[in-house]
Amino acid sequence: MRYRLEIILVLFILAKLCGQNKIYGIADWVQQQSEYLIAALQLRHMRLPHHSTYRRVLTDEIDAEELERVVGEYLSQLPRKGQDTVIAIDGKTVRGTITLEDPFGLHLLAAYLPGEGIVLMQMVVEKDKENEIVVAPKLLECLDLRQKVVIGDAMHTQRQLSIQIVAAEGDFVWIVKDNQPNTREAIERLFAPEKSRPGFGCPPMNFRTAKTTEKQAGRIEERTIQVSSLLNDYLDWPHVEQVFKLERRFTYLSTGLVETQVQYGLTSLTARKACPKRLLKIIRSEWGIENGLHYRRDVTYQEDQTRITAKSLGRVMATINNLVIGLINHQGFVNHAHARRVFNACPAKALALIVGL
């Protein structure tokens, strides 16, 4: 091979950091920076790879699972801003891999640290054979869950997964919807307003509450949580310590329109470990994987717009996107489009981030 594998990867990741998303654009950018890159990387060949070389190497020469493992280990050992205790799990379909022959495309389930902005690991979900419920236990089995709180959407509100997490010395916070109808009904009934009857008093409730108010995007959002431990001895759910009702109230400033959303949930965190204020924060952090990872991959990195017929290449591209997102987050950038313009203006900064030059 004319180009060593590590050189191909460095050039590819560097171009990603500097704002390129598609393989043609990556190859073109590298060619435009050839004089600098040949000198900086001390390359023997004066010609840099053609776009077909990147596609062939990333498809045929790289073990996607091995790359996933190496990237996950690297991101996990980066110095942390704090001890992030929340792991959010959620899946995403790489829509650029969907074809007439394969209408499911490549679907990946990721474990993400919202507070740090890094992906610990992601696994393939073979949607024609299984779903995220089957893959989630395998994903979490590979992670150190001690002192961690796992959160995910209602699909993952499963008894066996709850048992697995607590057995691994972790905790869970689940939203309960209609996939667990009896559990949802019991929690909803607990928080329903008690109707008093003549001659009878209302039973005492140990509800604890917290509330936050934020103004953004032309609306005021009020989030109110009520938490109780009254169902601990009655609810048919392993390791439950608290249940909650979360009400979100949106007031749109331009029209005065008010919308209300109500969710119910449960957690293995005791009242001592998680007061209502902390539970609000944990529940909100689940959106971090949507906004901080999936939205960025879709919009800033144009992942879904990149046509890739080979699933192996789609997985490699997704893993590299995760790496670049993690590196940029670790540098303290909030706006990734701005960060990539900064690196494009000075590729030496981006190269130093990758290889420590």
Automatic annotation (TrEMBL):
InterPro entries listed in its UniProt record: ISAs1_transpos, Transposase_11, Transposase_11-like, YbfD_N
GO function terms (MF aspect): DNA binding; transposase activity
Signal sequence annotation: none
Domain of life of the organism encoding this protein: Bacteria
Residue stretches making up the H repeat-associated protein N-terminal domain: 2-74
Pfam families hit by this protein: DDE_Tnp_1, DDE_Tnp_1_assoc
Transposase IS4-like domain: residues covered: 82-309
Residues passing through the membrane, by range: none
NCBIfam families associated with the record: transpos_ISAs1
Protein name, as recorded: Transposase IS4-like domain-containing protein
